[in-house]
Each structure stands twice: as structure tokens, then as C-alpha cells.
Amino acid sequence: MSTPDPQDFLDLDGQLDDAERDIATTVRAFATRRLAPHVADWFDAGTIPDPRGLAKEFGELGVFGMHLSGYGCADAGDVSYGLACRELEAIDSGVRSFVSVQGSLAMGAIHRFGSEEQKQQWLPGMAAGEVLGCFGLTEPDSGSDPGSLRTRARRDGADWVLDGTKMWITNGSVADVAVIWARTDEGIRGFAVPTDSPGFTATVVPRKLSLRASITAELSLSGVRLPASARLPGAQGLGAPLSCLNEARFGIVWGVVGAARSCFLAALDYAKTREQFGRPIGAFQLTQRKLADMVLDVNHAGMTALRIGRLKEAGACHHSHISLGKLGNVRAAQRVASAARSVHGANGITLDYPVLRHLLNLETVATYEGTEEVHALGLGQALTGHSAFR
């Protein structure tokens, strides 16, 4: 019997069907060829230099809204979408966010809550990467408590007028359409806002130390006037945007497995080739213990992601399952990235190796779309029946 493959120690990919394996292989090949040679430079520069060009390539690859059906979307299934996220985040969390914000948040909201006219207007172009979208829920004073958002939408005749500010919006400054969540007299509602609307402005957030190979913006809406047809008719109440976030969190559950795998494999390669005291550092007990802990975390996280994916495809996935996955898998990825950085020693702090870049990115991943505290309390509520939020 052969020694297990370090890249997939438990042969989890052996649990995939042929179509799922093909998708994972295709996305990994694209990511290795097109993204890996450039991502360190993008991170160093603090941006994606040609987001529209990259979006068209992602559209050709078929990853935008790939788990959605119709309107040019691939209808590839939840596990297939998760595998794509895994392979993209193995390169960088920022490029996975680029895809998941477009597909799960912006496209997902329009696909689930939009009118047929809105779906026809936006989704085919978004699936092809010709139209970019963003998702505006978080505000400067409303992060973990989205129910306290202050952005307002008021009726003015047949129109709606929106005023407010959104913060930490991925793709915000390059988007063609922004899904904006606002408080109305009838409760929280969603709107598909063309970003060329008068009164809409987007400002890039500067000086980020994490998720730098990504575009993050602050959105300002000052008297943005929209026709009644811009409101997403199926979106009523806070549950609507939260359900979209749940879809994106599912991508994170899978994505961080890729980040962890990348860090582990980098550390393993380094431990085999770096010599100290006349021996490869991988021959020392303390380094082997670090590598053993890493491979445990990578494979446990992979099992969690696959199980949640199968539950989701069976229609049996509760939102607390995804909270468990995000909380546990992000923690595991952070442990792996930190240990991998230590294996690399001083070399680990440079962009010549991926480990610190992943570690810094994971600080953001641990925070956005639900902090670890929020997910822990969500699990606590599922276990006890008592909410600790109010």
C-alpha cells in the first residue's frame, strides 16, 4: 500500500464524482497558470490591476454564479462551487472574494429575489463577466448587527430615493450594479442600483494590510433616485440579505481549505529542502510535529466542507451548519498559516512565499461575513435555544 498523498492525505477527492473532479482540476489549472504568477505582485500593489479583464476570464471559466441555474449560469451544484472556491483561495483569498461576491452575493440576490425583468437585465452579463456587481449591506456603524443599518429608501411618487453609506464593499469601485439594502417604512428592502446613477459614488479603501489582492470600497448614496422597478420584489426583511451571506459563507468554508492546503504544502516543501545543522529541518522532531498538526487541520477542514456541501445539496443544511464550518475551518486555516510561517523562519515574512500573505488574508476572512464571535453565538443558540444577541 502506497504512502498517502500529502496533497490529499485522506483522498477526499476520491469522494467526488467525475464532473466535480473535472471542475476542481480545471479551476486549479487556471489558477496555477493565470493567477499564481501574479498574485504576490497584486498583493504588493494593493489591487487587482485589470479587474474587468480578469472578470471576463472568470466568465469564460464559468465560475460566476456557477451554482445558480439559468441566465447563463452553469447550475454546477454546491460541492462543485465549493471546489472552485477551494482552488481559487489556494492562490489568494482576494481572488476567491472577487468570485464569491459576484456570484453568491450580487448574482445570488438578484437570482433569488429579483423580478424576471431584473434577472434578464443583469444575470447573463454577470455570468459572462461582462457586468460586475457588488453587495452593499455593511455600514460604518453596522457590521455584526446589520439590523441597525441606517441607509434609508423613501418613496417619492413612483420612485425610490436612497440615502446612506456602505463600507467594506468588495468590487464596489468597479461594479456596474450594486445590490443595496436599505430601511424603508415597510422594513428592510433590497435594490439593484446601477452605479452610474446620479448621487452614487464609490471610494477605494486605502492602506489595507490584508486582502490586498482585492478591491474594497466605501459607497455613498446621496439622493439616488430609482424607478420602482429597481426594488427586488422578493426581498423582504433582514432574512433576505442574511440568506445571501449564508451562500457566501459556504464558499468561505471551502475556500479556506485551499488557503490551508497551500500553506501546508509550502511548509512541507520548505522543510524538505531547507538545511540547518547539516540536516533538512523536516528531519527534526519539532518541525515534523508542526507538519503533522497542519495535515490534521487541512484534512479535518476538508471533511467538514465536503459534509456540509453534501448536506446543502440534499436540502438538509441549516445555517448553523455553515456557521460551524466557517468558525472551525477558518480557525484551522489560521493555525496552519501561522505554523507554516514559523517553519519558513525569516523567509516566511516575504512575498517570495505565500504563507504570511495567506495568514494576513485570513485575519479578514475570520472577520467578514460573520465574525467568529457571531458564529460561536449562533452555534450557542442552536445548541441551547437561547439567543445571546438581544
Task: Give keywords.
Butyryl-Coa Dehydrogenase, subunit A, domain 1; Butyryl-CoA Dehydrogenase, subunit A, domain 2; AcylCo_DH/oxidase_C; FAD; globular; 3 domains; Butyryl-CoA Dehydrogenase, subunit A, domain 3; 11 helices; alpha+beta; 390 residues; 4-stranded mixed β-sheet; 4-stranded antiparallel β-sheet
Largest sheet: 4 strands, mixed
Q: What is the total domain count? A: 3
The coarse silhouette is globular
Measured as a percent range, the helix fraction is: 40-55%
Estimated share of beta-strand residues: 15-25%
Radius of gyration: 21 Å
Poorly predicted regions are none
Folded structure, characterized:
This protein is of the alpha+beta class. The chain folds into 3 domains: 6-127, Orthogonal Bundle (Butyryl-Coa Dehydrogenase, subunit A, domain 1); 133-236, Butyryl-CoA Dehydrogenase, subunit A, domain 2 (Beta Barrel); 240-384, Butyryl-CoA Dehydrogenase, subunit A, domain 3 (Up-down Bundle), CATH 1.20.140. It has 11 helices and 10 strands. The strands form 3 sheets. Strands 1-4-5-8 form a 4-stranded mixed β-sheet. The protein starts with 17 loop residues before the first helix and ends in a 6-residue tail after the last helix. It comes from Allokutzneria oryzae. Residues 236-382 form the Acyl-CoA dehydrogenase/oxidase C-terminal domain.
